[in-house]
Amino acid sequence: MSNIILIAGATGDLGGRLSKHLIGKGAQVRALVREESDPVKVGNLRQSGVEVIPLCFADESGLIAACQGVSCVVSVLAGLREAIVTAQQQLLDAAVKAGVPRFIPSDFCTDFTQLMPGDNRNFDLRMEFKSILDSRPIRATSVFNGAFTYVLNHDIPLLDTRTKTIADYEGKADWRIDFTSIADTAAFTASAALDDDAPRLLRIAGFQVSPNELVALSGRVFDQPFALKSQGSLPEFAAYIKKVRADQPQGESQLYPQWQQMQYLYSMFAAHHHAVDNDRYPDIDWQTAAGTLEKIKNKKIA
Questions:
Q1: What pLDDT, in 10s, does the model give residues 144-195?
Q2: Within this chain, do residues 154 and 117 fall inside the same structural domain, yes or no?
Q3: Domain around 257
Q4: Which helix (H) or strand (E) holds 32?
Q5: Other C-beta atoms within 10 Å of 284: how many?
């Protein structure tokens, strides 16, 4: 079968980079875009050699037609239930009906198989879709990349350049957190999409770093080591998040309400890779922790 890769979500940063990597590897790329998608981004896809197919995900016959002859469908959709469960299931079922052999879902995040339902609302949606995907007659591969490195640009408690502090939860000072850049995630996923033998789960991390390691690294990069700041225990943090979520019901319809952002931080300290698959595709020059902090220091996107 020829390498025709269908991408849903190609107008986003990860999807756009993925498209370029696939084309660079000689694959044909089709991109499903919503009719209301940014025309500039759609135009850029077409100029790069991507076959763009505008349609509504409720158009089953259109989806099936778009999937014809495709060797792998890759979803990089982002959003809440409408995108992660409903739209992905519509795409999945069309792929199955069209005889597509492989599907990569939008699971670019912490390894949520290690978490409990309720730990992270957005991951709960991915868990729900995983059960749907695993019930279908199609080979699936999820890429777990931990957290995207760019979150460190935003002075989150884990690395706050304003207060020069690093979050430390009880017993977690040496807990190594998984980080991968969008660029490296796109490069790895492109290789996975073209790898007919890719397993069900692939775990990657451009780097793994603990609060204690961040202290030492901040001293080298910023010429002054940041201080560990105790945040209490993880169970206390989980209880606080639960209270904030109950007090902010409007956040249930928002992608990143305050409590969801806290859930992401909680997830970083609750689950991590015990082994990584970085070496499966050896041509990737992974962005390092030091390189990431250098970008942050120089006010470049990490």
A1: 999 999 999 999 999 999 999 999 999 999 999 999 999 999 999 999 999 9
A2: no
A3: 148-178+207-297
A4: strand 28-33
A5: 20
